[in-house]
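Need a sequence for this fold. Nothing fancy.
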């Protein structure tokens, strides 16, 4: 009697794509306490995202409500 062995091909799963996320933090005044809070917010969220292997931080941005210059790019991408 012959052994009829059948081979079944199981295709691999497609690779999981990282989710791209951005951080936006805002404070309401230019006081030292508020600026310290802005720094703490950005740092905490950056660490949180870094701890997750499936998430890619694509942009960080923060601003102050009373800031006449508008939003601050915190990503380091626009620095010269």
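Here you go.
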């Amino acid at each position: 009697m012959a052994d009829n062995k059948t081979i079944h091909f199981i295709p691999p799963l497609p690779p999981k794509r990282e989710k791209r996320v951005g951080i936006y933090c805002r404070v309401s005044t230019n006081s030292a306490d508020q600026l310290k809070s802005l720094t703490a917010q950005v740092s905490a969220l950056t660490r949180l995202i870094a701890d997750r292997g499936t998430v890619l931080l694509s942009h960080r941005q923060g601003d102050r409500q009373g800031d006449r210059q508008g939003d601050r790019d915190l990503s380091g991408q626009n620095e010269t």
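For context: DSSP finds one helix and three strands in the chain.
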